[in-house]
Design a protein that fits this description.
Protein name: Methionine/alanine import family NSS transporter small subunit
Oligomer: single chain
Order of helices and strands: H
Strand content: under 5%
Radius of gyration: 14 Å
Pfam family, one: MaAIMP_sms
Number of strands: 0
Keywords: Membrane, Transmembrane, Transmembrane helix
Helix content: over 70%
Length: about 35
């Protein structure tokens, strides 16, 4: 894999896991009924 592919993969992983963690934190602060 080239350096560019590795960077793009790392960015995609950070976006996915960052969104997941943000959603979990938001649900813990404001639990739905």
């Amino acid at each position: 894999m080239s350096a560019g592919a590795i960077v793009m993969m790392a960015v995609a992983v950070l976006i996915v896991w960052g969104g997941l963690i943000a959603a979990i934190l938001r649900l813990r602060k404001h639990p739905s009924e």
